[in-house]
Design goal:
335 residues, alpha/beta, three-stranded antiparallel beta sheet, 30% helix, binds iron/sulfur cluster
Length: 335
């Protein structure tokens, strides 16, 4: 896979103007850059390009933005593990990705130079999981775990399969959309483990990302018995439009992916130009509820800074003595 990994490569591909090169090299020195060929092919769509092309506004860090915006560090008992809720852990197996998203909440950590967990650190992380019977679900994230070879994923799954109390293994990835060719039969086979349910959460933010190749990659996973859910980050100029967001949710459902979370943009450094307001997000969610099938409804959530977990943030349909219909009309109801 040939990726476009520097501002100079992006200038050469005609994706950014040459006069921006010096400024964008300063951005790239701070935050990793990479687009896959599949995303370069979609770069004429501003809602795709804005997710991946560096922007000089990334150097503007506002006071409320922090390097660890959702408070992972406060819940990391051993390297690679985040244990925020009793019954599940995150396992950050690698900090590399196929693409680098300009809004990433782990942007201070991810990049091509970031290393995967060392064998000793992986041993310690798996021992932590094995020692805690309350851990029912392991969420493999990063970075993007699907950049790992099928051989490494198979080895990880074999070790998780040996832990009886782990029943569910969930992968979070952008790869089926941004590098669908990586979803090979060998990778799909590597994700299966006897006695465990493997789920795949696809992160995609614009309907154009669900190309025929991406949909076929997801079908390879789903047809092999791996259910899929979606994750979307609400982003200014990408999907903060009811028609675009609705088309994305429909594209997920058409691909047999259940819309799961719509994330409010995290307070990651240099991302304020991509964040919407919560009021915008709530009115977009109201529009989805009014217009689209119940299958197409994600939950709009905010990760509370400091590591306090996710809060559903509306909109609200219930008040003292009333309930609102999907169009916003209020109706008396005993509460
Ligand atoms: S693929 Fe995920 S972890 Fe990697 S840069 Fe994008 S949002 Fe961050």
């Amino acid at each position: 896979m040939t990726a476009f990994r520097s501002p100079a490569a992006l200038v050469a591909a005609g994706l950014i103007p040459p006069e921006s090169l010096a400024a964008l090299e300063r951005v790239a020195a701070q935050y990793a850059v990479a687009l896959t060929p599949a995303m370069v092919a979609l770069a004429a769509e501003p809602g795709v390009a804005r997710q991946f092309l560096p922007d000089v506004r990334e150097l503007d860090v506002s006071v409320e933005e922090t390097a660890d915006p959702i408070g992972d560090d406060a819940h990391s008992p051993v390297e690679g593990i985040v244990h925020r809720y009793p019954d599940r852990v995150l396992l950050k197996i690698t900090l590399t990705c196929a693409v680098y998203c300009r809004f990433c909440f782990r942007r201070e950590m991810v990049g091509p130079q970031a290393r995967s967990l060392s064998p000793a650190a992986l041993d310690a992380a798996l021992a932590y999981i094995a020692d805690r019977p309350e851990i029912w679900e392991v969420i493999i994230t990063g970075g993007d775990p699907f950049v790992l070879s099928p051989r490494r994923l198979r080895a990880l799954m074999d070790r998780l399969a040996a832990i009886d109390h782990v029943k569910v293994i969930r992968f979070h990835t952008r790869v089926p959309a941004v590098s669908p060719e990586l979803i090979t039969p060998a990778l799909v086979a590597a994700l299966q483990a006897p006695g465990k349910a493997t789920w795949v959460a696809l992160h995609a933010n614009h309907p154009e990302e669900l190309t025929p190749a991406a949909r076929a990659a997801c079908a390879r996973l789903i047809d092999a018995g791996l259910p899929m859910v979606s994750q979307t980050v609400l982003l200014r100029g990408v999907n903060d439009d009811p028609a675009v967001l609705g088309a994305l949710m429909r594209a997920f459902v058409e691909t047999r992916i259940k819309p799961y979370y719509l994330h409010h943009g995290d307070l990651a450094p240099g991302t304020s130009h991509l964040r919407t307001t919560l009021a915008d997000g709530r009115s977009l969610m109201a529009a989805l509820r009014g217009d689209l099938s119940g299958l197409c409804q994600p939950t709009y959530v905010l990760d509370i800074p400091g590591g306090h977990g996710k809060a559903p943030v509306g909109p609200n349909y219930l008040g003292e003595g009333w309930v609102a219909d999907p169009g916003g009309g209020r109706h008396a109801y005993p509460t």
